[in-house]
Amino acid sequence: MLQNIRVVLVNTSHPGNIGGAARAMKNMGLSRLALVDPLHFPSPEAAARASGADDVLAGAQVVASLEEALVGCTLVVGTSARDRRLPWPMLDPRECGAKTVEQAAGGCEVALVFGREHSGLTNEELQRCHYHVHIPSNPDFSSLNLGAAVQVLAYEVRMAWLGQQEQSAGLEKTEVVPARTEELATMDEMEGFYGHLEQALVEIGFLDPANPRHLMSRLRRLYGRSSVNRSEMSILRGILTETQKAARGDAHKRKDQ
Ligand code: SAH
Asked: Does the Cβ of 78 fall within 6 Å of ligand 1?
């Protein structure tokens, strides 16, 4: 999922910032870095600042234009250190994290684009982005170091991703734990159900008593891990009863013909 997210650095002048960005990314579980026409890369300074995120640097894709860096993306978010009075859909860093994770989880490719140390992204580059994101810094001193800006957005991506992981773990839990334990079908109700199920399966010709092939044990294992509650049990019994009626009706019809 996180591998669907790429960080794009445009025309970076200081290789140390590339290393800092790589480190920030790896700390937050991101690995895909694209460098648009960097001034110095590869460079020992980048490697030194990456301090262990060498794999991110080694895997970095170096391209000549922003267009190339964005191939395959369906969501592009551009960063801006200041308000450029360019009317564009804006996200705050938190919304950016949520949107990025939502899209990446759906299998879409997402790019977070960062600009030059001295001049940021051009208006033309910003207009290639679906959204702009501004880190709400001190208006009198609004420009963060490039690596620090990557860190903030990568952190928001991670928080959104962790939130999503937690949510899906929670869903799994509710699937296996019934709403109220007192509603669970009792062992004897389950036994009654297995007897009924076996009888119905024989009647419809799905289970051959002469060659049962562990079918009932497998079905017990299946229903046993489903924590069937009482109302679910009555649905299952109802289905079995109607199945038997239908099968018996068909048998009568066949006899009549
Ligand atoms: N003087 C430039 C500053 C660029 S800072 C300008 O005014 O645009 C280098 C890059 O770091 C920016 O292009 C952006 O990608 C990122 N960055 C720095 N501060 C940021 C902020 N407050 N919000 C979003 N991105 C920021």
From this structure: no
Which pLDDT score, from 0 to 100, does residue 35 have? Answer: 98
Among 11, 18, 79, 116, which is best to mutate for testing ligand 1, by the most ligand atoms less than 8 A from CB? 79
Right CATH number for 187-256 from 1.10.8.590, 3.40.50.10490, 1.10.150.20, 3.40.50.920? 1.10.8.590
Residue 147 identity (one-letter amino acid) = G
- pLDDT, averaged across the chain: 90
Residue among 80, 86, 117 whose CB has most ligand 1 atoms within 8 A, to mutate? 80
Distance 2 CA to ligand 1 centre (A): 23
For domain 2-169, give the CATH number: 3.40.1280.10
80 within ligand 1 shell (Cβ under 6 A)? yes
Q: For residue 149, what pLDDT band results from cuts at 50, 70 and 90?
A: very high
**What distance in angstroms lies between residue 191's CA and the mean position of ligand 1's atoms?**
67
Distances in Å between the alpha carbon of 148 and those of 22, 25, 242?
11, 11, 66
> pLDDT of 13-62, one tens digit each?
999 999 999 999 999 999 999 999 999 999 999 999 999 999 999 999 99
